[in-house]
Each structure stands twice: as C-alpha cells, then as structure tokens.
Design a protein that fits this description.
Elements: H1 4-16, H2 21-28, E1 32-37, E2 40-45, H3 48-70, E3 75-80, H4 95-99, H5 126-137, E4 146-149, H6 156-169, E5 174-178, H7 179-191, H8 195-203, E6 207-211, H9 220-235, E7 239-244, H10 256-262, E8 266-269, H11 275-288, H12 295-304, H13 309-326, H14 332-340, H15 354-365, H16 369-373, H17 379-395, H18 400-406, H19 412-425, H20 430-442
Parallel strand pairs: 2-3, 4-7, 4-8, 5-6, 6-7
Antiparallel strand pairs: 1-2
Helix pairs in contact: 1-3, 5-6, 7-8, 11-12, 11-13, 13-14, 15-17, 17-19, 18-19
Length: about 450
C-alpha cells in the first residue's frame, strides 16, 4: 500500500502539467502528503497563506487529481506543516560561501537573502529566472553571456546575487561590480599605475557579474577596458552576466562591438509582475516577518503597486511599521490611510477589492464565487460573470488581464467584451441596471 507521501508525489507530477509554472512553484512545490486514512487525504503546506490559497483556488483540481491517482473518491484537507529545511530570514550563508568570494569584493556584496529559493517566479520573470538558474548551475556553458534587462525594482539584482551566491557555494571565484564601481576602479588603476592588478582582478574570475551597464555610456575608455575583459573571459569559457535597464541594442554605448557581444548568449527581459506574482511576494514577505494580514489588505497593495517590486515591498513594510508604532492591526483602513498620499496620490482611494466585489456578485446571484471562475455558460451565470467584470473594472484599478486571471484565466479580449456589454446594457436594460444597483448597495461606499 502506497504511503501518503508517495501518493502525493504522484499527484504533484500530474498537477505540474495542469497548472502554470508560477502557480506550481509558489503554491504546490513545497507541499507534502501528510496522511491518507479511509476517504480522507491531508496535504501539508509550509505556509498559512498557501493553505488558504489551495483551499479556495485549487481544491477541486487537487481532489480530481488525487481521485485519479488513488482510484477512489476522497475528501481533501490542508494543514500547515512548517518545513525544517526552510532557511530563516536572518540566517547567514555557510562560511564556505563567504570564504570563496573574490578577495577584492567583501561578502556583503552578495545579499544572503537573495537566493533562487526565495525568488517568486511568475509569467513576467520566468525566462530570466530559468536562464539565471541555468547559468549558476553550468557557468560558461549555458547562455554566455546572460544579459538581463528591465526597469528598476523588478528583480534583476535579486537574480544577480542569487547567481553569485550559488556559484560561490560551489567554490567558484566570483567577481561582482556595478558599472560605477568598475569605472572607478579602472580610473584609480590608471592613476595609481596598477592596471595589471585591475586586469587580474576582473579577468581571472570564473564568473563575472556587472550591473547597470547603461551607466558606462559616455566613458569610451571604460568601455574599451570592459570590451577586452569580456573577450578574455568569454574566450576562456568563463561566465559573464550583465544587467541593464534596456536591451543591448538600446544601450547608450559608443563601443558598438561591445553591444553586439552582449547578444551572443541569451537576452532575457524582466517585466512588470502580474497580479498573482505580486500577491505571492506580499504573502511571503509578511510570513517572514511573522505578521498576520487579511487577504483584502494584500489585494489593495497589489493593485496599488503594479509595476515595481521595491515599491510593493516598501508599501508592505511601511504598513507593518505603522501598525506596530500605532499599536493597531494592519487593516485595510490603515493601509488606505498610509498609502493614499505616498503611492499614486492623484488616484481616488479604492476602498473595494476585486475579491469583495466578486463575493458580493456571487451572493446576489445565489452562487458560489467558484462558479464565476468556471467555464459554465448558462444565461444567469454569464450575466453574473459579466457584471462582476464590469464592477471590478469600474470600482478598482485592476487591470483587464488581472481580472481575466481571477475569473478562471480568461483572455484580455473576453474580459473587455464583457465589460462593454454591461456598460452598454446599463444605458437601456432595466434588468442589468437593477442587478448592478442592488449589488452596489451591499458594498461599502
């Protein structure tokens, strides 16, 4: 007879091909099979918020998958089972990692919290994450050079430090510098006649990481030095990782042959995080600080801060700090007060969240919120779904693609058509007008 652990591993294998990678990595990867007695199967997850997410979003799919694996009808339960292998927030990396770093760069250059394990993967960064992990595991053999680009605050530095930490742990000589640091050391080496030391420092590394390459624009001598450093390292199959806020062809370098070399390996963009990724980041950050926060608070922050992870994390940290100072719970009301003047001050204050609106629509039509996410298309359910789309779009700043994901992964165009249908019918159709008015009356103003 198979154990609960064996059954669950088989189920996870089936689930991995049924959900997208972001959902699997965030919600399912660290789960375990706890027990299987009679028709009861218990799944353990290391995080409280993940338990809630699995219960509300993936229960039916998990149950169906387990029934297929076991061959009998079962009921699924979820419980929190902290993993003993998880690295705590303040834990330092092993000494062997720190000792293996290049002596020219102190251990503090790599943030021990920036690892692959705690990087939240989503559709916006999946390629960059996979490429970075491949480079860390096989430096010099995959994607050389690796060029990561995207706006500030989206995770490029996290990936760069994760590569450095991983490579250093495996005993490689890692050299890391910002473009400003590379420039300053180059200038100082010329002034102090230490160019040989400079060359040795940067050209003897197994792995060379340089960030914000766009800032060496207008510095032709620095670019020339980097060009020769690049060639020497690349010819020796030593790994190079470069980051920028723009793709290679748009980088403001006069040394065009250097730009062309940036495209020899893999160019990967880190884009704005989608809603699911933003929520996952907030859940994980709050868990690490051991703070209990309602789901609606996370949703408010996630919809408020859509394009910058640093802003997202900063808003959460600001809320937690204010709550502690004021000795209040980190409530929706408090986060609204704190962030109104600090993030998007010209936008109206959204007191509603998409989830609260979907719940109100479902309650009005006498259905479960899960039906709004389903593919069923009877007339009453279709109307409810279209009204839900209309109200979320009207009453929050939720993007169309995020609304589609909340409603079962519907396409942007489908959501837009539903919104326009209700907006048009609101002008002439008493039934739609009455439904919308009655739902709005149940929502906080």
């Amino acid at each position: 007879m198979r154990s609960a652990k064996e059954i669950w591993e088989a189920a996870k294998g089936a689930l991995q091909v049924q959900v997208n990678k972001a959902n699997y990595e965030t919600w399912l990867k660290d789960t375990i099979g706890v027990s299987h007695q009679g028709n009861q199967f218990v799944v353990g997850t290391p995080r409280a918020f993940a338990k809630e997410w699995l219960e509300k979003r993936l229960r039916s799919l998990i149950k169906k998958t387990l029934v297929n694996v076991i061959g009998q009808d079962i009921e699924v339960q979820f419980q929190v089972c902290p993993s003993p292998n998880r690295v705590s927030e303040g834990q330092e990396l092993p000494a062997k990692i720190l000792d293996s770093l290049h002596p020219g760069f102190p251990p503090s250059k790599f943030n021990p919290r920036y690892t692959f394990d705690n990087f939240v993967v989503g559709s916006s960064n999946r390629l960059a994450f996979a490429a970075a992990l491949g480079v860390a595991e096989e430096p010099g053999h995959k994607y050389n050079p690796l060029f990561l680009y995207g706006d500030s605050g989206l995770g490029k530095t996290h990936l760069t430090h994760a590569i450095g930490n991983h490579a250093a742990e495996n005993g490689l000589k890692v050299t890391y510098a910002s473009s400003e640091q590379f420039t300053n050391e180059f200038v100082n080496a010329i002034k102090e006649k230490k160019t040989e030391e400079f060359r040795h420092k940067f050209r003897s590394a197994d792995l060379f990481l340089i960030e914000d390459i766009q800032f060496i624009g207008g510095k032709p001598q620095t670019q020339e030095s980097l060009f020769h450093t690049f060639d020497e390292l690349h010819n020796a199959n030593h790994q190079l990782v470069i980051t920028s806020d723009r793709p290679p062809e748009a980088t403001p370098l006069s040394e065009r042959k250097l730009c062309s070399r940036f495209e020899w390996g893999l160019v990967a963009q880190v884009q704005d995080p989608d809603l699911e990724t933003r929520l996952a980041i907030l859940y994980i950050k709050a868990e690490r600080q051991r703070v209990q926060i309602d789901k609606e608070v996370f949703e408010f922050i996630a919809h408020r801060c859509q394009s910058n992870i640093r802003e997202l994390e900063g808003s959460l940290n600001r809320l937690i700090a204010y709550a502690k100072m004021m000795r209040k719970d980190p409530s929706l009301e408090l986060v609204q007060q704190i962030l109104q003047a600090l993030t998007s001050p010209n936008l109206p204050l959204y007191t509603l969240t998409p989830t609260s609106i979907l719940d109100a629509v479902a309650d009005h039509f006498g259905i479960s919120p899960a039906f709004l996410q389903s593919r069923k298309r009877d007339s009453q359910l279709t109307l409810a779904r279209q009204i839900a789309i209309y109200l979320v779009r009207e009453k929050t700043n939720c993007r169309l693609q995020d609304i589609g994901k909340m409603l079962g992964g519907r396409e942007h165009s489908t959501v837009l058509r539903s919104y326009h249908k209700v907006a048009t019918r609101m002008l002439t159709d008493p039934l739609v007008q009455r439904n919308v008015t009655q739902i709005l009356a149940t929502l906080p103003q």
